[in-house]
Amino acid sequence: MQRIATAAGPRARTGAALLTLVLGVWAVNACAQTHGSLQGKDTGLPALLPAEIHGVWDLAPEPCYVDPTVESDSRLQIGADFVRGYEELMEIREVARISDIPLALRVLAVSDIAPPDLQGPAIYVLSGDSLTIADAEQARSYVRCRSASSGRDGS
Hints:
This protein is of the alpha+beta class. The chain contains two helices and ten strands.
């Protein structure tokens, strides 16, 4: 992380530090409680992720291009009711909006391969073409993948 932050400059380091602080506070509070509007879990509403985060994402800081010939162990495909990772499919069970600016969500997804004791809520924070996902163990920042031919979102 130090190498990435140093290469990005003081402004980027300040932004990264602020985002880390905000995620830390949210991870402690929001993972334990639900704030804002809730979808799923006995509400009668389907648990759906907002369209703003649908698409293909890969770990930052490298640019990401969707190319069927290139595989990535860290790539995620996010749809309305699923998150597909490398050899893993997570079904969205609950979505609670924490804030609108930046878009922040508390998401409970159930993995088809992870043991139940390793599953729990995560905080998704969208800022432009950067998506940070933090759970009880770690925080990872992803960049939105673009189509190699058109430069548009790779959704």
